[in-house]
Specification:
Structural class of chain A: alpha+beta
CATH topology of chain A: Alpha-Beta Plaits
Number of helices of chain B: 13
Largest sheet of chain B: none
Chains: A alpha+beta (about 160), B mainly alpha (about 350), C alpha/beta (about 250), D mainly alpha (about 400)
Shape of chain A: elongated
Helix content of chain A: 10-25%
Oligomer: heterotetramer
Radius of gyration of chain A: 24 Å
């Protein structure tokens, strides 16, 4: 068709868009699920944690607070020396400060921290954003399985 | 009012008429605002607009907004010129109500059937310039002052093209009376076929286009929204207004759009008349017909508003003086020649 | 290109050189890095030489990963800029900035937050490419939009009264860069139209980017990494408790 | 604004100063000038730029940008951070194309450590850099309409950009701050089915560019508002350090991806560098529109030639970068972004000079805005396309 003057062409574009279905999602009723790798919230697998404090030290925002104590555990082999194991008392992540950079999840040598794409945990009071050990444990349920990688990828799927 | 075959005094009919007009303008503004600003604009921008308030497609949104505005705190700037600041929105809205005194919605449904209806309507519509200037000056805000000065220059510059567009219609209809114009369009015929009547849009197409452009400028809508340029002057002369004063401006803006669309429908699309409908039926059907034509014209105006960027001040003025006014004069000459020739 | 292994060797004798006089290594101001001499840098060095940057004003030049670093004497700074703009056609001013070579103050002090995860910078003062005569240096990078090459010019400022000539007459764009450098390091640029604060509020005293300016953001809050795993109550202290594992 | 500065710039290029400002400021009508503060909270300044403008009527007599409202002191912070922590910092400088910020810093650290990222990692890095460029430019193409008054294009810009951000989120986990770059490669590989998804999004990007060409660039009112506004001659532009599409719109054929030292896989891609002779706001819009299409074509080329293999080179667990200095510069969406990294062999850098593009792009405003109308100030601010984080660091 002949090159319409820009003014008419522009009107055509807006009319065409008006007749096409809208792309917006009506949030409270319909929900768009985020990508499985999305960094929504950090989940803690308590049994893996050995209170090595690496995550608390590497965190740029200083938003991980950890307290633990040592305990004696029965030796693996009988007659052996009783093992002294660190046990976690307090593991809080303050999501008011966290910038979701993921250094803690990556630096943890014992795979105790995982990413979960869940994002609906906003609070009315900012102090409630301090998730304690128990709340972080609950997030473990929402952590997806590491997904298969694209063809041609060699490295194993990391968390 | 013979229609209802009651003989109610002159005072009560006037009271009824004013109440009707006082109801029509805000509802008209809300309908126009809702249909075009909320729903059409959002669909044009591939989104749905308000869906939740009021259940079906968020119809309650603007009513809710109105209530919200009323209960908002009415802030007045410290150095504001208090009385002028308070009066300004009233003046702007006044001009909208006055226009509706003349627009006919049926053979008998008109507040006052003035013989100089068109002249009166255009004269009153330029009242809002004073209101805008008052608002801009009184709010003691540099952005508001800039916006008001721009509005003054623009509204005055676009009075002339508006006038010339309408004069063409008046020459063809032979009368300034709006009822007369409507009847002239109703029983006219185009080349012998009188089924559709003869809406002036067919013969006065230049006038119709001119009227739309000038009305767009009168309403300070894009591409002529320099006075309310949201990316420069934040919101021009309305910047310091809150609460129900801002509601006045909102109703003023969309009420004037409603009024101008009604005026355009009456002048160019044959107002309330459908050929072949007379007497009482016309009184009942008239308002709906006018409303339908009005919405068609308003669709054109808002469609342009949501698509185009904004002209700069000097381009806006040169467009008015160098293009629209010569076009208006040409249209006048053509109408005169045709009037005499046929 | 391998990092410049020769760097440490020349560094030590560097600090003794007096920047204004004819430093000992003025003669070897040709490219002296171990990596293969870069033809482009050769051409640039020749142009600089031809442009009038005399032997004594070029203290030392070096090729560092595709970039050619030339250290000029303080008094020849504007002259060097002029030659770069005209002889080398470097019409594009990338940036002008300052360096404070003093070693970072001891981290994790009592008044600080005890954050031991900060990188432990070496404590003695060492210099980078093309060395330096003292603690303060101004360096600029200019490029040519036509010849698609660029070089870094450095100069030394003496510690007591750090001043250098301003490049605003050469490149108007230098205005903001020099204001920022004055604000952050306290270097005075002679001939600059209006040296005033660019980022910081007008009443800000001190020069933040100097190494001795403390980073106060972290002093108010104790570092969460300080907490250590305590022993069971009544249990003899197995590991030395105070020593926190170095990250 | 002191007058000597005017004199300083006057000597620079007399013929560049046939600017309309001096000719048309009417002196006989000595109305007092009005000082107007555009910003720091103002719809047209992308963030907290404050422009103290002295107006004579609606014409700007002088404009003095005041910056620093967003200054976070990154160069001081980098001296107290380890390398992984610095990457989380620097992708917040130009937060619209945050992946592209990390690329020069990673390149610098890899050069110092003499490590080479595996080819697959380089290809994925190029794809993600071009994706962030497309996301930034789509927002600009819509935003520019908004600066000039058209409401609708901005929504189209956001709508189409959403697809690109979803792509980046699917790979890196973060829409705005991917934090996916590591020294020596990438944190992870592409998820299953991502390449096919990326191809379909590129079609959406091409369609979006056509829509913008018709709706905005073709619109006569847009042309009337942007042609001949904010003309920057090439020599004045480069002397202020302007870079990227702003300089290419003034006719300078210079793109670091092609002319600078080779980085990532750009030498293996064939792409065109778009320039425009007019040097005005309209030219800047057109150049960025063309560059969006070029980036989309580049992404498709990279997808076709994506090699298989690991995405991470062998890197020690605790990264200590050996002593040395390096200057790396790349062609970011807003212009040239470079890092002068000085390392003393610690786990963190000793000093990082961050050269950001918008800082120099905005420093030309006092020269550029003289004698300009107020609405054109907004058009010029829109067309220069700066990000406040980039200016204030």
């Amino acid at each position: 068709m002949p090159k319409l003057p820009g003014l008419i062409g522009g009107l055509g574009v807006t009319l065409k868009t008006m007749l096409r279905p809208a792309v917006t999602v009506q949030y409270p009723h319909e929900k768009e699920d985020p990508a499985p790798r999305a960094r929504g919230v950090i989940a803690l697998k308590e049994e893996n944690c050995t209170v090595c404090m690496l995550c608390a030290r590497q965190c740029p925002d200083w938003c991980i607070y950890i307290e633990g104590h040592k305990e004696q555990r029965p030796p693996r082999r009988e007659g052996g020396r009783p093992r002294s194991v660190s046990v976690l008392d307090r593991f809080d992540i303050d999501y008011a400060l966290c910038m979701y950079c993921g250094i803690c999840v990556e630096v943890c040598p014992f795979d105790a921290l995982f990413w979960s794409p869940d994002y609906e945990y906003s609070e009315s009071r900012i102090s409630d954003l301090l998730h304690d050990k128990q709340r972080l444990g609950e997030w473990m349920a929402t952590v997806p399985e590491p997904e298969p990688l694209e063809a041609g990828a060699e490295s194993k799927g990391k968390k | 009012m013979e229609l209802l075959a009651l003989d109610i005094g002159w005072g009560t009919t006037l009271a009824i008429k004013t109440i009707v007009v006082l109801i029509i303008i805000p509802t008209g503004a809300l309908i126009l605002g809702y249909v075009f600003l909320l729903k059409m604009m959002s669909h044009m921008q591939s989104r749905l607009g308000p869906m939740d308030p009021g259940g079906f497609h968020g119809w309650y949104q603007l009513v809710g907004d109105g209530l919200k505005f009323i209960q908002k705190e009415d802030v007045m700037p410290a150095q504001a010129d208090r009385r002028v600041f308070a009066m300004a929105p009233a003046v702007v809205v006044l001009s909208t109500f006055l226009i509706f005194a003349v627009i006919p919605m049926g053979p008998d449904l008109v507040v006052k059937d003035l013989d100089v209806g068109v002249f009166y309507a255009l004269a009153v519509s330029s009242l809002s310039v004073i209101g805008v200037l008052m608002a801009g000056w009184a709010s003691a805000n540099k952005f508001a002052l800039l916006g008001a000065l721009r509005a003054a220059a623009q509204l005055i510059a676009y009075e002339l093209p508006l006038l010339l567009a309408v004069v063409g219609v008046v020459v063809q209809a032979g009368t300034l009376n709006l009822q007369g114009i409507v009847t002239a369009q109703q029983d006219g015929s185009i080349f012998g076929f009188s089924g559709l009547g003869e809406p002036f849009i067919l013969t006065q197409f230049i006038g119709f286009a001119l009227f739309l452009v000038a009305a767009q400028a009168e309403l300070t809508q894009t591409p002529f929204d320099m006075p309310v340029a949201e990316s420069e002057l934040v919101s021009g002369f309305m910047v310091e207004y809150t609460g129900f004063r801002f509601l006045f401006f909102f109703i003023g803006e969309f009420g004037t759009a409603f009024a101008f669309a009604a005026l355009a429908a009456t002048l160019f699309l044959g107002g309330w008349a459908i050929p072949g409908v007379e007497g009482d039926w016309a009184n009942i059907l008239g308002p709906f017909v006018l409303f339908a034509k009005l919405m068609a014209v308003a669709f054109l105006m808002f469609w342009v508003r949501f698509t185009y960027p904004r002209l700069r001040e000097d381009q806006l003025q040169s467009l008015a003086w160098k293009v629209l006014i010569p076009l208006g004069l040409l249209n006048l000459v053509l109408t005169g020649v045709f009037k005499v020739a046929f | 290109m391998a990092p410049d292994p020769q760097d440490d060797a020349t560094v030590t004798d560097e600090s003794t050189a007096v920047d204004d006089g004819a430093p000992a290594e003025a003669t070897e101001d040709a490219v002296d890095s171990a990596s293969a001499p870069n033809p482009v840098h050769e051409e640039m060095a020749a142009l600089l030489q031809a442009g009038g940057l005399g032997g004594d004003s070029v203290a030392r030049s070096e090729s560092v990963f595709d970039d050619y670093v030339v250290r000029v004497a303080n008094r020849a700074w504007r002259h060097a800029g002029e030659i770069a703009r005209d002889a080398l056609e470097c019409d594009y001013l990338s940036f002008i900035a300052g360096i404070d070579w003093a070693p970072a103050p001891k981290e994790g002090g009592e008044e600080a937050s005890g954050d031991t995860s900060q990188p432990a910078q070496p404590t003695e003062m060492t210099f980078g490419a093309a060395g330096s005569a003292g603690r303060f240096q101004v360096f600029a990078h200019v490029q040519s939009t036509r010849r698609h090459w660029g070089l870094t010019l450095k100069t030394d400022l003496d510690e007591s009264a750090p001043t250098v000539e301003s490049w605003v007459p050469l490149y108007p764009g230098a205005d903001w860069h020099e204001r920022e450098c004055w604000e952050m390091f306290g270097f005075v640029f002679e001939g600059h139209p209006s040296l005033r604060h660019l980022y910081l509020p007008a009443d800000f005293e001190g020069h933040p980017l100097r190494k001795d300016f403390p980073l106060l953001a972290r002093v108010v809050k104790p570092w969460p990494g300080l907490v250590d795993v305590e022993a069971m109550p009544g249990e003899p202290e197995a590991a030395a408790d105070t020593e926190t594992a170095q990250a | 604004m002191s007058t000597e500065r005017m004199v300083a710039t006057d000597q620079l290029a007399p013929e560049a100063l046939h600017h309309l400002a001096d000719a048309q400021i009417n002196v006989e009508l000595d109305t007092g000038d009005m000082i107007l503060n555009l910003g720091p909270q103002h719809p047209a300044t992308h963030g907290t730029l404050r422009l103290v403008v002295r107006l004579d009527g609606e014409r700007v007599v002088s404009a003095d940008p005041v910056i620093g409202y967003m200054h976070r002191g990154y160069e001081k912070l980098t001296e107290f951070r380890t390398y992984p922590q610095v990457t989380t910092l620097i992708n917040r400088i130009d937060w619209l194309s945050s992946f592209a910020n990390e690329v020069p810093f990673m390149d610098a650290a890899e050069k110092l450590m003499d490590i080479e990222a595996p080819p697959r990692a380089k290809y994925i890095r190029t794809i993600l850099t071009e994706l962030s460029r497309i996301a930034t430019f789509l927002l600009f193409l819509g935003e520019m309409g908004l600066q000039v008054g058209a409401l609708t294009p901005a929504f189209y810009g956001f709508r189409d950009r959403e697809h690109v951000l979803n792509l980046i989120e699917a790979v890196t986990g973060g829409r705005f701050h991917p934090n996916f770059n590591r020294i020596g490669g990438l944190k992870d590989d592409l998820p299953w089915g991502w390449v096919a998804e990326c191809r379909s999004v590129m079609d959406i990007v091409f369609e979006a560019c056509d829509t913008f060409e018709k709706l905005v660039a073709g619109n006569e009112i847009f042309e009337a508002r942007t042609r001949g506004i904010g003309i920057i001659p090439a020599d004045v532009g480069s002397s202020y350090g302007m870079s990227g599409a702003n300089l290419r719109a003034s006719g300078v054929d210079w793109d670091l991806r092609r002319d600078g030292p080779p980085y990532l896989v750009y030498p293996e891609l064939d792409f065109e560098v778009h320039t425009h002779p007019d040097a005005d706001s309209f030219a800047r819009y057109i150049v960025r529109l063309e560059e969006t299409r070029e980036s989309a074509r580049m992404v498709l080329q990279c997808l076709d030639a994506l090699p298989s293999g690991p995405v991470m080179a062998k890197v020690p667990r605790i990264i200590k970068v050996p002593e040395g200095e390096v200057w790396v510069e790349t062609e970011n969406p807003l212009g040239q972004m470079g890092y002068y990294v000085i390392s003393k062999g610690a786990t963190g850098p000793f000093r990082v000079k961050i050269r950001s593009a918008s800082f120099s792009n905005v420093s030309i405003l006092p020269w550029l805005l003289r004698g300009v109308f107020v609405p054109d100030v907004i058009t010029i601010l829109g067309s220069l396309y700066f990000i406040l984080g980039d200016i204030d660091r």
